[in-house]
Design a protein that fits this description.
2 strands; MetI-like fold; disordered N terminus
């Protein structure tokens, strides 16, 4: 018996079993080009984000001009001057307190409403979406003018509580609704909310327990995203706080910017670090303490 035919198929000169497919070598060039394009895009984005921060860092560390070299020396006097402002700590603490109240109020209002809408009245989903997105079409000045009588009444009849800057959380909850709704809605669409809620209810869980122990762990990513967006908006909100004449951290930042140049750049960098620190801290705490979703025996 001759095996010439079979062995010929295994020959390296073009046998059928080990023949190289056409265009096999061209596929390696595409990933290399894609990798280079990704690196270039990443470098452009990082440069766009980091160059202004580096410019502010360079400007905020300028000191007195050396009479010999005619060049500005480097100094941390601007950062030391920030700590001498008496209203700095109060502004930061007030803004953080407003951010915490806004996050809790937004989640308490939005999460049960959206879950109930998805499970019980899905026809109202468009109505809830329209109401949550409506603040995007209303300017901040209009909101302040419309709610000013309410704040005037609170300040006259509720004493220190009504005149507290923490009441800004009521307006901030309205402002963060569009962004928070989109974040939570994307998480709710990624799971079968109605089935999870019905299963929890069939196992004896009430609505509060079903939402907290079954739905919330499954949409934790959307809740964290909504909370991060709310913190970023509150820590940077200036218009309403200024028109309502409340002292918050953005008001303090504007005051420093109008009086001194170098400390203003230092305060801007500090506000950037404060905002990112608060958001990253929230993400770290939320992901570190996230409970595993369970549906067995109603979470018992």
């Amino acid at each position: 018996m001759s095996f010439t035919g079979e062995l010929g198929a295994l020959a390296p000169e073009g046998g059928a079993l080990i023949a190289r497919p056409k265009g096999a070598g061209k596929g390696r060039k595409a990933p290399a080009r894609q990798r280079a394009a990704r690196i270039a895009i990443l470098a452009i984005v990082l440069g766009y984000l980091l160059l202004p921060l580096l410019a502010m860092l360079e400007f905020s560390t300028r000191g007195n001009v050396d009479p010999v070299t005619k060049q500005a020396t480097r100094s941390l006097q601007s950062y030391a001057a920030i700590l001498s402002y008496p209203n700095l700590v109060d502004g930061i603490v007030t803004s953080l307190e407003i951010a915490v109240l806004t996050v809790f109020g937004m989640l308490l209002l939005l999460v049960p409403t959206m879950v109930w809408t998805v499970v019980r009245v899905p026809r109202m989903r468009r109505v809830v979406e329209f109401l949550c997105l409506l603040p995007l079409a209303i300017p901040a000045i209009v909101i302040v003018v419309g709610i000013a009588p309410v704040y005037r009444f609170m300040g006259q009849h509720l004493g220190a509580v009504g005149a507290s800057p923490l009441t800004l959380a009521f307006i901030d909850i309205i402002l963060v609704l569009p962004y928070a709704y989109r974040a939570i809605d994307s998480s709710l669409r990624s799971i079968d909310t109605a089935t999870l809620a019905d299963a929890a209810r069939s196992l004896g869980a009430g609505w509060p327990r079903a939402i907290l122990q079954v739905i919330v762990p499954n949409i934790r990513g959307g809740i964290l995203s909504a909370s991060v967006l709310a913190i970023a908006l509150v820590l940077g909100e200036f218009t309403i706080a200024n028109l309502a004449q409340f002292h918050t951290f953005p008001i303090f930042l504007q005051y420093v910017n109008e009086t001194q140049a170098y400390p203003a750049a230092a305060v801007t960098l500090m506000s950037f670090a404060l905002t990112w620190g608060a958001m990253l801290g929230l993400l770290f705490i939320g992901r570190g303490r996230g409970a595993r979703p369970t549906l067995l025996t109603g979470g018992r």
